[in-house]
Design a protein that fits this description.
By secondary structure, this protein is α/β, with parallel strands linked by helices. The protein has ten helices and ten strands. It has two domains: 141 residues, Rossmann fold, CATH 3.40.50; 140 residues, Rossmann fold, CATH 3.40.50. Helix 4 packs parallel to helix 5 and helix 9 packs parallel to helix 10. The longest helix is centred in the first third of the chain and has 27 residues. About 7% of the residues have low confidence.
């Protein structure tokens, strides 16, 4: 068995029913890797209680009641998970207005090396939904983040690495290779999608010239991909490679649906992770559009 890639897992949860799938995945991975698992809950009600009831005579009692309630909820979840998984599960109750900020602050002190979070929570503000806290965690977490969609099956058998010849793309490929080696019988899918410069103008010339240009561009990109992959040890892995002349988001979403991908491994960019134009134009479309899990990692030496 390959060496476990992560040894201290931190599961961030909003305690909603849709977060249960992430909990099941965290249990599976912790048991497989013999890793320590901690579940974290951010009590966002506590700051509100201080604001509204702090001036009351029994304000301190109200605050303590809110704090105790949060602790009881996360402790009960940890106990239930430990019983279900047959492994120890630690818990931590955090406090703060912004869940992502509180979690990232805790990550630095916890020693965790993988952060797991469920997406599309059912709270009124969709607290851990992909549009809010999960995205913030991907952008700001100093450690890899595994986002798990609700109702997905646990385990990864079809793992996709989108490759774009950047350090971020290589970080995602590294993670995908590691995940494939950890999952017995898994298939590693390597996809490079591109839009050749000037394709829009050539496409108005003639269908024959357009197709010839496309095929030549695909051959060129495939040669670059083969050169990149020659640096990696893919021995013993079931590997499928594809080059697509499409926008990256469109190609990735289509590939995920066609091949039943369970996990996408992607690199993040800069100190704020999948930020700016990269996040808005490609990665965010992928994260919002897929029904599978997504692992985001920082390139080596990123400085996050």
């Amino acid at each position: 068995m390959e060496q476990a890639p992560f040894k201290q897992l931190l599961l961030a949860t909003d305690l909603s029913p849709s977060a249960a799938t992430a909990g099941a995945e965290a249990l599976r991975l912790a048991a497989r890797w013999n890793a320590r698992l901690t579940v974290a809950y951010v009590n966002t009600d506590l700051p509100l209680s201080r604001r509204w009831f702090g001036a009351l005579r029994n304000g301190e009692e109200v605050e303590e009641a809110v704090r105790t309630s949060g602790r009881q909820k996360i402790e009960e979840l940890a106990r239930a998970m430990a019983a279900a998984g047959g492994i120890p599960v630690d818990w931590i109750a955090l406090e703060g207005h912004e869940p992502a900020e509180a979690i990232v602050d805790y990550v630095g002190a916890s020693g965790a090396d993988l952060l797991l979070v469920g997406t599309h929570g059912t709270t009124a503000a969709d607290v851990f939904g992909l549009g809010s806290v999960a995205v913030q965690l991907i952008r700001t977490s100093p450690i890899p983040v595994l986002t798990v969609k609700p109702d997905k099956k646990t385990g990864f058998q079809d793992i996709l690495a989108p490759v774009d010849f950047t350090p971020s793309g290589e970080a995602g490929l590294d993670a995908a290779i590691g995940a494939a080696r950890q999952a017995e019988g898994a298939t590693l899918h390597i996809l490079h999608a591109f839009e050749p410069l000037g394709f829009a103008s050539i496409s108005v010339v003639s269908p024959g010239e357009t197709d010839a240009y496309r095929q030549e561009a695909i051959r060129h990109e495939r040669a670059q991909l083969d050169a990149l992959l020659a640096r990696y040890d893919l021995s013993g892995l079931n590997v499928k490679i594809e080059v697509a002349c499409l926008t990256p988001a469109r190609a990735i979403l289509g590939y995920v649906e066609k091949h039943g991908i369970d996990l996408i491994c992607m690199g993040t960019v800069g100190r704020t992770g999948l930020a700016g134009l990269v996040f808005g134009n490609t990665a965010e479309q992928i994260l919002r559009g897929v029904t599978c899990s997504v692992l985001t990692v920082h390139p080596s030496g990123d400085g996050t």
